Amino acid sequence: MQLRSVVLYHRDGTRRHELMFQPGRLNVVTGVSDTGKSAVLEIVDYCMGSGSHGVYKGPELETIGWYGLRLIVGGQSVFIARRRPPEGQKTAEQAMLVIGADGAPAAGDIYAMTNIDTVTAEVGRLVGISENLQEPPDGSTREPVTAELRHAIPYVLQPQRLIADPKYLFDGQENNFKEQHIRDTLPYFLGAVDKDALSQRRELRKRRVELRAARAVLADVEQATAAVTARAAVLLRDARANELVEEDVDVDAVDVREVLRVAIDRPPSAVAVTLTGEAEQISDLHDRKSELGDVIRELRQQRRALVHRSRLAADFATEAGEHRARLLTLDLLPDAEGVDRTCPLCGSEHEHDAPAVDELRHELERVRAQTATSVAVEPQLQAAIDELDARIQEQAGRLDEADRELRILTARNDLARRARGRLEQQAYLRGRIAGFLEEHPAVDAGERTRLQSAADLAEARVKALEDALSADATRRRTENALSYVGADMTEMAQQLRLSYSAHGVQLDPVALTVVARDRNGPVLRCV
User: What would be the CATH architecture of the domain defined by 278-439?
Assistant: First the structure.
């Protein structure tokens, strides 16, 4: 893009003034001070979309209503105009764009057909600024930046104050925000960023979605395969436990599904599972044991009663004997014959015994008779107890015999039941295996290979795009482009015989300054 002329339109809408330039040549504008020479760059900057009106406010420019630029863009004529802000305002959005115009429009033909953002976007497209997005490095908190026509202005416009500034190289660099924008967009304007980078980023997002989808499908297949394998292992373990699969089968050398399929067709074991009349015999034995238990309990209860009675009789005989022995020992009751009836106190004789003596003698006789009876009954009680012991022993023997028969029959019955249960368990397990094989058909190895290949291809595409869009790749291409820029700068610096130009001059894309070299190495400065 080259500037052909700057056009000033009077606010009365009838007059205009055009300052012509020679494209492709060095144009020098001369004149006395305060005649608006510096305003030329400010007018160009304003028409290129500046956010504020910074044009010199001299008396010569107070009558201007519109600013215009005639440009040559890609070999065709382009005219853009922007309205001067009304008094009290810092900017104006009204703008005009004519592509392919032959000369500047007349003053009466200037009107607001669009806004300045649309104009700069269209001019940027004509210049070759494609749709782009400059993303900051990973981990940065900065927002992505879209390189636009406005971002190219610092590289082409050098205000008078900046030419002699030893600290800053580009216009707006003193503003940290603009300085960072220069750093972010410099690789794009150097051509280090592919023009298709934005479409590549979109392609990368698309490919990442495809990669995630391919990985998800593959993961689902692998997870389902793992689940099926785990379930098959459980069925195989149960089949071995139920004798449907031989213990020595090497499942690692054969297909587990084939082993399970063989287990379904395995014939049942030759085990007799017929239950004869043993169940009725077992029931009869339980009844017999219950009856014998009742008999034994009854006999033991009778024995306890006899033992208690025998113990009471023995205790009574012992107590009565001791009592009679005490009376006899004291000789208080002599025999009735030859009894001395003389009163031991008064010496008189009595014809009859006293009533108390008769009662004692009678009681003594009664005790003697009861004692004799108790002694006579004790052998009979012991004989009855011995008889009960014998009967209890006999019934206990019968109970033990019935218990032995019951245990034998129960063991045989349990064996038969277990055998029948084993067959039922095998039949149930065959059903489970058949359902498993029908529900989970064999996984097609080719299908899994295809899914893996699709995931690998998607991953390779993503990696290729990531490599192409990586910060390292952009940095390498920027350094390469700056090496050519540095060669041109060195040649120009040497032609102008600038200091430190003998050993090479380069542009530092980080410090945004010129780096020259001497014999000792780089010197960071603006030359």
Answer: Up-down Bundle (1.20)
